[in-house]
Amino acid sequence: MNDPALILRDVRKRFSNGDKEILALDGVSIEVKPGSVTGLIGPDGAGKTTLMRLCCGLLQLDGGALEVLGMDAANEPAAVQAVIGYMPQRFGLYEDLSVQENLDLYADLQGVPLSAREARYARLMQMTGLAPFTRRLAGKLSGGMKQKLGLACALVRPPALLLLDEPTVGVDPVSRRELWQIVYSQVQEAGMSVLLSTAYLDEAERCDEVVLLHQGKVLGQAPPAAFSQEMQGRTWEVSSERVPVRRLQTTLARQPGIIDAIINGDRVHIITAPDFPPEAINLLPDTADLQIRAVPPRFEDAFIDRLGDTEDAIQATPEIRQVEKRETGGQPIEVENLERHFGSFIAVKKISFSVKQGEIFGLLGANGAGKTTTFRMLCGLLPVSSGKVSVAGHDLRSASARARGRIGYMAQKFSLYGNLTVTQNLRFFSAAYNLHGQAQKQRIHWALEGFELEPYADTNAGTLPLGYKQRLAFAAALMHEPEILFLDEPTSGVDPLARREFWARTNALAEAGVTVLVTTHFMEEADYCDHLVIMAEGTVLAAGTPHEIRAMARTLDHPEPSMEDAFITLIQQQEGGK
Amino acid sequence: MLKHILALALKEFLALLRDPRSRFVLIGPPIMQLIIFGYAASFDLDHVPVAIYNQDSGAGGRALVSRIEGSPHFEVVSHLDHDAQIPPLVDNKEVLLVLHIGPRFSAHLSQGGATALQVILDGRNSNTALLALNYLRSIVLDYNQHLATNQGQTGPPVKLSMRAWYNEDLDSHWFIIPGIVGLLTLVVTLVVTALSVAREREQGTFDQLLVTPLRPTAILVGKSIPGLVIGIVEATFIIVVAMLWFDIPLRGHVGALYLGLLLFLFSAVGMGLMISAISVTQQQAVLGAFLFLVPAVILSGFATPIANMPEAVQLLTYLDPLRYFLVIVRGVFLEGDGYALLMDQYWPMAIIGMVSLVAAGWLFRHRMY
User: Fold this and answer.
1) How many CB atoms lie within 10 A of CB B188?
2) Is A439 on the interface with B (CB under 8 A)?
């Protein structure tokens, strides 16, 4: 049983979208070792889902060969489907059926004998911790619980090969850890082979082996440690007492010998080019108290380093910006005892916070924590049930059109007009924001140039590459130079490079005095914010600066907790307090 | 405000016309339906299949049969020689009507007496059966008169001398095709506007639109314009085809017709936007549009006269904008009506349009999640 569970040889898959052809997988060759967890890592659009669906025999190959447990997936899809378990990104749970009924349904579909069911159910319920909820409707479970139930349904008949497509996206950190435990227990108990895709780079380190996928090509396959190993001696952390960490990061990112600089807690984590000694004098000669220390490389460092090679490093697209100062009193955003009910369900429970001018304010939480509901109420898209919301001194729901003209908004998924060209989109949104004639022309020119969209000016927005779509959405939200910018999950599913580009731009906006409110389910992005609120189940779990929140979770044997550690500690404290 | 509306309307047109699928929806179905209605839909019966069981050997029977054979309405598909052949023919819908001429038909006639003819009808579709019977009746009536003059009599004392006004040949195309102007523009306008907001809601662009300084009124008006313009273009196309291809006379005031059209489209756009404001997905919007369209067509008097409907249902027809527009379009085409005569049709449509637009505007603000 030492044959690979899954073999792909030069696999190709094309999709045609109108007259355009997209090569989703371009000569992918990988092997999944039996009895181990292989992680498929890559940003949205890398081809992860296509690969998974090919392995299940749900799509036809355009070239190459694919062998699942010794069978040809293309010729014997039914035989392959009988021995594998597949959990798609949005697992088909029946929301109006209870947990037990969902399990029964999948057991029936998978042909699990009645005699075997009881023991299997008991084991699954114990693993997932869903035992107390077997009679609850699946639709009433939290996001993390739904995901665990989905996994349980995929495991109801123990498969030889388990394919999991982004099982942890948008799930809270606690549930994410539990999902990983379930996966590993199956590998150890039943010798199952697992192929799991994820967009979270920190999860790569939990896999036995990692496949890096980018734009349909494999960038490498190795144990995660091997990836990090290459980066030995090139990763450092820089800190300074005197310079604010965000300014430090911006300055460092511009240095020639530095490949990457990101904020990690109170320090800046940098990757240097090979043979570039990070002496304080080389980096920032005028900062005397600069402290530099070597740190062990992480998987993400290797990923960035490899991606940086393939991509032309245009990176961030900084652009001209106006600084404006607010003279009137009051904070740009104030929220007091805000509540929102949907029937008997309380999505947001009495939350309060305020945002100062020119700061980046983060609203963090897992899917279903209530951050999108809060966000929509702030933007005036959803009426509040009770409490008070004030944005630039107004409740946007009842505010005049002029008040809305002072905010910018970027929705979670790309929401511009797909069959209008880039220029047509910009023209429409600038007109909607009262820009006409010469001013409008200037701003469109500014957007096309500043965001490097000129080559795509006459391309339909819907067919732009993912990163450019986000640039266009960003440009459309900034056409009227808003004072306050709302960004809903801007980094969800975006590759790490585009995420860096995004944060660089957001930083620059904050430096220019724009107030930014951003939601995210990536805990590590908290460090980019000046202030943040972590939400869980509709309430504020913690609020403060990233430093303060991490301090809440600091213990003797854990002196430097990550934001995710802090979240888990806080959740446990809250549950302990109940 | 004006610039906002212009920008929105321009965006709506671009979004509609740059998408090959929605382009097809605007052009394909109207032409198809025009052909189907123009050629297939007719109240007139032609070539009704009949069988004749002629037991008579005289000249009288033969003369009658040749009259039937010569009529454009009938087609004699079989001649029978015993009555057992009748049931299978009618049962299998091979003939709609069987004419039985008795053995002593000519003999009775030549003796100057009266005689009877037996007609067997397939009554499953009562409407066509009655029509066929009417055609046969007029043939027999004609034959009677012919016999009477031959025998030197003056014929029956009262004769019916008929003249149809407005539609001199009683050609039912003249009745149906002007109706299509209303029917097709209603379908296209309603679907275009019903999809407009629902599409944006589905794609998430509606939120983006609502956070801009655009006022709901501006959004409403901007979204109405494409429906109005497309409706006018389509209606004009059908009117021209009706006049030039189907040779239907346009006797009245073109202005009176277009005033009616404008008000009719105004109410259709209002209904469409209301449906759009309620729907969350495009699928719901299309479903909603058809939920409105089917009763609207049945209650409009497009095919069946409103006067035949039960009292309560007749009251319901007053809510149907198509009801008023059909009166206008038929009136202008066939009767040559002008503004004054049609006043009573104009104002109800204006009210329906106003109420539905206000309702749609209210729904925009309150149906946001």
Assistant:
1) 23
2) no
How far is CA A339 from each of CA A345, A347, A538, rounded to the nearest angstrom?
11, 8, 9
A380 lies within 8 A of chain B by CB? yes
Mean of pLDDT values over A22-39: 87
Cross-chain Cβ contact B208/A409 below 8 Å? yes
In this prediction, residues B238-258 reach a mean pLDDT of 90
- Paired residues of A410 in beta bridges: A487
> Strand A37-41 relative to strand A20-32: parallel, antiparallel, unpaired?
unpaired
The structure tokens 């299998």 sit at B92
Which of A97-106, B42-51, B282-291, B349-358 has the weakest average pLDDT?
A: B42-51
Report pLDDT for B292: 94
- How far is the first Cα of chain A from the last one, in angstroms, to the nearest whole number? 49
- Confidence (pLDDT) at A314: 45
Helix/strand/coil for A413: coil
CA-to-CA distance for B349 and B234, rounded, in angstroms?
19
Three-state helix/strand/coil letters over B264-280 = HHHHHHHHHHHHHHHCC
With CB atoms and an 8 Å threshold, state whether B213 touches A432: yes
Q: Could you name the CATH architecture of B48-150?
A: 3-Layer(aba) Sandwich (3.40)
Query: A-chain residues within 8 Å CB-CB of B205?
Result: 415-417
> Using one digit for the tens of pLDDT, what is the confidence trace for A350-393?
899 989 888 899 998 877 788 888 888 888 888 888 888 888 88
Strand order of the β-sheet with B48-54 is B74-80, B48-54, B97-101, B118-121
Residues 460-489 of A with CB under 8 A from B: 460, 476, 486
Element of type H or E holding A66: strand A63-68
Strands A217-222 and A84-87, by their bridges, are unpaired
Does the structure show a pLDDT above 60 at A312?
A: no
- Closest Cα of chain B to A341: distance in Å? 12
Is residue A167 within 8 Å of A148, Cβ to Cβ?
no
Residue A577 has pLDDT above 80, yes or no: no
A404 has a chain B CB within 8 A of its CB: yes
The answer to whether the CB atoms of A381 and B211 lie below 8 A apart is yes
Model pLDDT for residues A554-564, shown as the tens digit of each residue: 877 777 777 88
Neighbouring residues of A324: CB distance < 8 A, sequence distance ≥ 6: A481, A483, A513
Q: Report the complex ipTM.
A: 0.74
Structure tokens of A451?
Answer: 């965001």
Helices (H) and strands (E) in chain B, counts: 14, 4
Task: Write down the residue that tokens 């449509």 correspond to.
Answer: B349
Whole-model pTM over 0.80: no
CB contact under 8 A, A409 and B18: no
DSSP single-letter state for residue B335: I
Domains of chain A, earliest start first? 6-226 (3.40.50.300), 233-296 (3.30.70.1800), 358-380+400-577 (3.40.50.300)
Of A362 and B152, which is predicted with more confidence?
A: A362
Rg (CA), chain A: 25
* Nearest Cα to Cα of residue A498 among A46, A38, A133: A46
The whole-angstrom distance between B29's CA and the closest CA on chain A is: 22
pLDDT, tens digit, for every residue of A410-458?
887 778 888 899 999 999 999 998 888 898 998 898 888 888 888 888 8
Q: Domain residues of chain B, as ranges?
A: 2-41+171-366, 48-150
Q: How far apart are CA A62 and CA A149, in angstroms?
A: 34
Mean pLDDT computed over every residue of chain A: 82
pLDDT of residue A262: 81
For the stretch A190-212, pLDDT in tens is 888 999 988 778 788 888 999 98
- Check CB contact under 8 Å for B211 and A376: no
Contact criterion met (CB < 8 Å) for A431 and B7: yes
Using CB atoms, pick whichever of A415, A428, A486 lies closest to residue B7: A428
